[in-house]
Design goal:
By secondary structure, the chain is α/β, with parallel strands linked by helices. It has one domain: Rossmann fold (3-Layer(aba) Sandwich). Helices cover 44% and strands 14% of the residues. The protein is built from nine helices and eight strands. An eight-stranded mixed beta sheet has the order 3-2-1-4-5-6-7-8, sandwiched between helices. Helix 4 links the parallel strand 4 and strand 5.
Length: 290
C-alpha cells in the first residue's frame, strides 16, 4: 500500500470512469487530501450517487467533488465535456484517465471505432489534448493513464485498427492497452520541458465491474484463483495514487509502473516509432490533425 501525507488543498483533479472500483477509491483518497475532484462519468446519476456516498464517508474538511457527463464512445461528448471543463477550471493539476472497457463483444463507437480502442484510447487521447493547456497551466502537474499487463498480448494492427476482420475480445483489449502505453510514451516526449509528467499504470487483477463483459463460464472457472490472487479496489488504486502523488517521481515521465514501482513493459510498448505513428494516426481519426 502506498502511504503518503501529501496534501492537495488548492489542487484540481479530473478523473474519468470513477463511480465504481479503482476510480471511486481514487476519488475518495484525493478528495480526502483536500483536492477539488471532478468525476467525469458516463451516467451522471451513478456519479452523483458515488459522490454523495464518498462525501458522507469523508465528512467535513474534505475537498469538493463535482460530476460531469463524459461518454468516451462519443467524440461529441468528449468535446462537450472538455469545453465545460475548460470554461470552469483555471488549471488541472492531475488528469487521471481511469475509465476502461475490457474484453467486450465487438461493437463500435459513434464514430465507428472498435469500442475498446475507442474507449480506452481514442476518447482519452482527444480529451487529454483538449485539456492540455489547463494541465500545463498547473505545472508541475501530472497525467496518469490506466493501462494493463494485458498490453503484453497486444499488437498494433495498423492495417485494421478497428479489427473488422478476425476480432476477438482479448485481441482488442490487448491492442487498446498497448496503445495506452505508446500514448504515454509519446505524450511524455512531447511534454518534455513543460513541467507536465506522464505515467502509465498497471493496477493488477482487481475485483471490479470491468469484468462485466466476460462470459459466465469464464468467471466461474476463474473464481477460485481470483479469490486468492486478485486485489480489492483499494489495493488496485495504489499504483495510480503512487504515480499521482509520489514526490520522487517528479522527474520521471513517459514510463510504466506496477505495484508502486517502475516496471519495464514489453518491447512493443517501447517502440518510439510506433508511439509517434499512433499519435499521428489518432490525431487524424479524432479530428485533431493540423
Amino acid at each position: 500500500m502506498y502511504n503518503s501525507d501529501v496534501r492537495l488543498e488548492g489542487k484540481t483533479v479530473v478523473i474519468t470512469g470513477c463511480n465504481t472500483g479503482i476510480g471511486k477509491v481514487t476519488v475518495q483518497d484525493l478528495a480526502g487530501r483536500g483536492a477539488r475532484v471532478i468525476m467525469a462519468v458516463r451516467t451522471v446519476s451513478k456519479g452523483e450517487a458515488a459522490r454523495d456516498e464518498i462525501k458522507k464517508q469523508l465528512g467535513e474538511g474534505a475537498g469538493s467533488i463535482e460530476v460531469k457527463q463524459l461518454d468516451l464512445e462519443s467524440l461529441e461528448s468528449v468535446r462537450r465535456c472538455a469545453e465545460e471543463l475548460n470554461g470552469a477550471l483555471e488549471k488541472i493539476d492531475l488528469l487521471i484517465l481511469n475509465a476502461g472497457k475490457m474484453a467486450s463483444p465487438r461493437t463500435e463507437t459513434k464514430e465507428g471505432f472498435e469500442s475498446q480502442l475507442g474507449t480506452n484510447h481514442f476518447g482519452h487521447f482527444l480529451l487529454t489534448n483538449l485539456l492540455l493547456d489547463k494541465v500545463k497551466a498547473a505545472a508541475p502537474s501530472r497525467v496518469v493513464v490506466l493501462s494493463s499487463l494485458a498490453h503484453k498480448m497486444g499488437s498494433m494492427h495498423w492495417e485494421d485498427l478497428q479489427l473488422k476482420r478476425g476480432y476477438s475480445p482479448w485481441k482488442a483489449y490487448g491492442q487498446s492497452k498497448l496503445a495506452n502505453i505508446l500514448f504515454v510514451s509519446e505524450l511524455g516526449r512531447r511534454l518534455e520541458g513543460t513541467g507536465v509528467t506522464v505515467y502509465a499504470v498497471h493496477p493488477g487483477w482487481v475485483r471490479t465491474e470491468l469484468e462485466r463483459h466476460l462470459p459466465w463460464y469464464h468467471k466461474a472457472i476463474a473464481a477460485p484463483v481470483k479469490s486468492v490472487f486478485s486485489k480489492s479496489p483499494l489495493q488496485g488504486a495504489q499504483t495510480t495514487l503512487y504515480c499521482a502523488l509520489a514526490p520522487e517521481l517528479a522527474n520521471e515521465t513517459g514510463l510504466y509502473y506496477a505495484d508502486c514501482r517502475k516496471t519495464t513493459p514489453t518491447s512493443a510498448a517501447r517502440n518510439a516509432e510506433d508511439a509517434k505513428k499512433l499519435w499521428e494516426v489518432s490525431e487524424g481519426l479524432v479530428g485533431l490533425a493540423r
